[in-house]
Design a protein that fits this description.
The structure is a single chain. The protein is built from eleven helices and nine strands. With 261 residues, the chain is an alpha+beta fold. The chain folds into two domains: 97 residues, 2-Layer Sandwich (Beta-Lactamase); 109 residues, PAS domain (Beta-Lactamase). Strands 2-1-5-4-3 form a five-stranded antiparallel β-sheet, sandwiched between helices. A hairpin with a 5-residue loop joins strand 4 and strand 5. The longest helix has 23 residues. It is elongated and about 75 Å long. It starts with 15 loop residues before the first helix and ends with a helix. The N terminus is likely disordered.
Amino acid sequence: METITPRGGGANTAQPENMAMSPEIWRYVFDTIEDPAFLHDAQFRVMLANRAYCRAAGVTEAQALGKPYWEVFPRGTGPMPGCKDAIIGKGHDGSQEEANVGGKLFFSRGYTVRDAQDKPLYALHVLSDITAQRQAEATLAGSEERSRRATETARDAIIIIDGESGAVTAWNPAVEVMFGYDKEEVIGRVLHEINYPTPFSRGGHESHGAFLNHRRRRGDRPDPGAGGPAQERDGIPHRAFPVRHADWRQMAGHRHRARHQ
């Protein structure tokens, strides 16, 4: 946590009871907020700006005060839409919106201050830099899309299940051909409900989650599992085939240990 020295520079000798009544205490508190924060009036003019806001805007507080905030930070052609709605009194108590500034993405939380007649007086905005978060989300989404495409186009039958509940989360076209179940019919269901030859059903485990936990406790490496007879949806016994079981968390753990040996 950042320790803030009063902007006056000297030690504050005021008694605690006097400080509680002094408006200056709010400036000190405001400066402890690590994200850029500012207060504006009903005309959207900056009334107070913390140190993080001034750093982000590249100005001093004196340079920011009295100006419409979109001329300072975050820059734009007018107030942010949600902020404008809150101030002109459309039933909003605040706003939440994103602002793109110089290649960085900020999430703005606005809090409207109203008088006893519900007239908006001021608004406090706190802006969080979410650039890295959005980039990570985009990278993850791209990875998931590549995995989905690889699964969908694979010639091998591929089933992906949730490691805890055992519910099916992916069921590719090759599996549809093999068992006769469409993807929409099995997503969200557990494997033993559709007569799939699961190793846990033959090992005395009540669920796939229990089977995975059993393997993790033993420290088993992901390896081919035994094949077994299954049934198509019409009840006709299906041919036996090998099942390869891969626990992604286990695989990641083994790779990590291998790199550090």
